[in-house]
Amino acid sequence: MSMIRVENLHKHFGGFHAVDGASLEIAERSITGLIGPNGAGKTTLFNVIAGVLPPTSGKVIMQGEDITGLPPHALFHKGLLRTFQIAHEFHSMTVRENLMMVPPRQSGENLWDAWFHGARVREEERRIRTRADEVLEFLTIDHIADEKAGQISGGQKKLLELGRTMMTDAKIVFLDEVGAGVNRTLLNTIADAIVRLNREQGYTFVVIEHDMDFIGRICDPVICMAEGRVLAEGSLDEIKANEQVIEAYLGTGLKNKVKDGAA
Fold first, then answer.
1. From CA 179, how far away is CA 181, in angstroms rounded?
2. Which helix (DSSP H) or strand (DSSP E) does residue 22 occupy?
3. Beta strands 204-208 and 172-176: pairing type?
4. Is the dihedral of CA 211, 212, 213, 215 positive or negative?
5. Across the chain, which distance is largest between two alpha carbons, in Å?
6. Which UniProt keywords apply (predicted)?
7. How many CB atoms lie within 10 A of CB 13?
8. Band (169; pLDDT cuts 50, 70, 90)
9. What string of DSSP letters covers 148-173?
10. 96-133 confidence digits (pLDDT tens)
């Protein structure tokens, strides 16, 4: 069953066609990899799907509903979330507090409730704190719960950002270069968390990443973009063997390597 369907999507910046008629489908409960060279249109495609940028034309359908052009906050409430290459944590707050900020429409945000329904506010806060601690334990970063988020490592910030998606009713999460600047040990932890969220809690993921080992480990299928269009789709092995991909994205260096390896 389809979670997201993109139909003939275009995004133009003046005369530059960043996304140029892209069409693709993201299956429910899949972990789909999105690869391509810099300038292929991957991040722009993410931004259009997630409502950060309006499309020039085309459609985005989520579980049968046309969500084209809806703003990020509306998509958030539908369960569509998008993370960024650079984590956006609240630096001066603790890791736990960063997670506790996420759930929308908390009673404590309402002055009337805060004044006259203190017991309800405290009980809700207790539940959210318990959930935050469960998320931190799931991600194996419970040991940094009380550290300031601005002082943790880049990889831990990526795990925190993944944790924020777990504090909502997420259905599909778009991850943009989750491995950027992350050491191999933490990258493996991130990969394990994504796979577990997919298998145990039914999350659908779409992942932009240049690390092919990471893509090969967790993603199937893999979609390759070039020049704003979808070039190929399949397993990573099928993508690597695709002549169009080799020429347009992976380059002659890898083409020769592929041939040498097959010899």
1. 6
2. strand 16-27
3. parallel
4. positive
5. 76
6. ATP-binding, Hydrolase, Nucleotide-binding, Transport
7. 11
8. confident
9. BGGGS-HHHHHHHHHHHHHTTT-SEE
10. 999 998 876 554 445 545 444 566 667 888 899 999 99
Instruction: For the chain, state the CA radius of gyration.
Output: 20
Which DSSP helix (H) or strand (E) runs through 238?
helix 236-241
The encoded tokens of residue 126 equal: 């207790």
Taken in order 185, 217, 168, 45, is the CA torsion positive or negative? positive
Q: What is the pLDDT of residues 14-26, one digit of tens each?
A: 999 999 999 999 9
Pick from 177, 175, 148: nearest CA to 162: 175
133 alpha carbon, distance to own chain's centre: 22
Closest to 72 measured CA to CA, from 84, 90, 85: 84
Task: Show the tokens assigned to 152.
Answer: 């943790």
Kindly report, as residue ranges, where domains of CATH 3.40.50.300 are found in the chain: 2-88+168-260
User: Is the torsion defined by CA of 165, 235, 19, 64 positive or negative?
Assistant: negative
How many Å apart are CA 204 and CA 30, to the nearest integer?
A: 5
To 10 degrees, the CA torsion angle through 6, 12, 16, 20? Answer: 20
Model's pTM, two decimal places?
A: 0.85
Q: Which residues contact 179 (CB under 8 A, 6 or more apart)?
A: 158, 187, 190, 209, 210, 211, 214
Is there a contact between 51 and 258 (Cβ–Cβ < 8 Å)?
no
**How far, in Å, CA of 238 to CA of 215, rounded?**
13
**Which two tokens mark 218?**
């967790």
Q: Identify the pLDDT of residue 105.
A: 57
Nearest to 97 by CA among 125, 117, 123: 125
